[in-house]
Amino acid sequence: MFRHKGKARRPVHNLKLAALLSFVAGIVNVAGFFSVKVLTTNVTGHFAYFADEVIKQHIENAGVFLLYILAYLSGAFVSNTLVEATQKVNPRYTDAVPVFTEIVLLTGVALLPTATIQQMAQLVAGILLFTMGLQNAMVTRISNAVVRTTHLTGLFTDLGIELSQLLFYRKPEHRKKLKASVRLRFAIISFFFLGCVAGGVGFTWLHTRILFLAIAILFTGIIYSDIRYRILLLKKNLSENKAGPPLRR
């Protein structure tokens, strides 16, 4: 799911990754909105608010929305920087480093008292936007830009186009590819929605501690991916050992 790259990556890997991280994004989105009244999984709306505040000459308020935008951008920048740096040191942990960075940041927010969150609302919103920028850049890189997990506007656009193409494309190979892409879009949208519902219901009881559910899912995903990778590597080694050394001529 996390480790498969390039030609080794199949649609099922993207489907698992999309389901996992879209659910996490849904939880973070609702937790951020309920706790600090800020949408924390994309920056489209923040651009509109930024422009509105600039026109009204509310420079301080405009600066807050600009910081939200830059927080998301910084998350994406740091995510790829971590990947590139880790690739040079130990490629095995390339994707684990951004995931654990996200886990640490979400844990920090989840542990904050409610009063502190209210007092530091803008900082908390910035941290959550940073984590979502981090996550979206990571999943974009892993899936070769096939999967996006933190905002739905582009997904609904792509889904509408592909559903329309199903009416016209008749070649089996084209339809197979389209159906796989449609399933992926539906998975992202569905799990984002489920994450929002779970986050909303959980927030009424746990407040921002509902983020621990997102943290647990991230932990589960990275551990599952690592175990799966080790099993496949072991099977490959056993198969090569059984085949024996190449014959000499």
Automatic annotation (TrEMBL):
<feature type="transmembrane region" description="Helical">
    <location>
        <begin position="210"/>
        <end position="227"/>
    </location>
</feature>
<protein>
    <submittedName>
        <fullName>DUF1275 domain-containing protein</fullName>
    </submittedName>
</protein>
<keyword id="KW-0472">Membrane</keyword>
<dbReference type="Pfam" id="PF06912">
    <property type="entry name" value="DUF1275"/>
</dbReference>
<keyword id="KW-0812">Transmembrane</keyword>
<dbReference type="InterPro" id="IPR010699">
    <property type="entry name" value="DUF1275"/>
</dbReference>
<feature type="transmembrane region" description="Helical">
    <location>
        <begin position="184"/>
        <end position="204"/>
    </location>
</feature>
<feature type="transmembrane region" description="Helical">
    <location>
        <begin position="120"/>
        <end position="139"/>
    </location>
</feature>
<feature type="transmembrane region" description="Helical">
    <location>
        <begin position="64"/>
        <end position="83"/>
    </location>
</feature>
<feature type="transmembrane region" description="Helical">
    <location>
        <begin position="95"/>
        <end position="114"/>
    </location>
</feature>
<keyword id="KW-1133">Transmembrane helix</keyword>
